[in-house]
């Protein structure tokens, strides 16, 4: 896989300082003794594995929690609005109390987030709609094919090379997995695969554009979480009155203690998922981040098998494992080498003005 303890995306000094201080805030402080490793050294050495574990735990649990919540309430938009506004409110409250750092609303920062909101809302809303009409395994298998297109987007827009032979082989396994799973899907529903196609388009756009914003817009990680959830929640709150079906269902629903606990749990995990998602995207490439998300969904399958009765057939589960195995073989393509801005020796000509700007360093 692409993300190893030594590989990470280049960060601006301010970004590096913000992320490290954000992580150190939650660790016990003690004066290091001579010769003893410090918390800062530990975080710097194991930063990527810790981030991936954090993201994997949130990602594998949230999809199952959302599936249970949607199946109980049948009101996906209502659940999504609660999750978004709860996340934004939690970040704002903790920022006021000085527990974490998050930028206040500013137009110069809101502007690049407008397209993120479109991609984020489209992705999450289509995701919830998919879970209404299909099981978790169907969604996970189709998600496992996204690195194929994202690797091309990384090459075209984010300055990386095309994937090598090992990665191409893994992508072929992913395609075989999706094709076989769909062929043996006895509970085929047109609505489910229609929403899967909608989700696919929004997801690919959001994955690339968010990575671009993380690399070019200087913000704290909690600031990105606050902006995304607040703006998305307000936008969806405007649309919510049009969801008449959900209004009727909610009027007839008498919330039990179990349902209220489920809503609170989904909101809490949603905050962590949003924070972990931005933290990971700031440290790995777009394609590598998606591959990590695909592989960690194996935890979703395990949880789903333990608590749910709407599962895929054994043949479909075999194709699912094949797809996850293919995703684990994927290797992040390195950044393309850029010609230097300045001549290396005296007398060497300066590159032309149309030479691509040197923005990345080889990871």
UniProtKB/TrEMBL annotation:
Membrane topology term: Multi-pass membrane protein
Cellular component terms per the entry's GO annotation: membrane
Localization in the cell: Membrane
Keyword Zinc-finger: no
Keywords, alphabetical: Membrane, Transmembrane, Transmembrane helix
Basic and acidic residues bias spans: 354-363
The protein's name in its UniProt record: Sugar phosphate transporter domain-containing protein
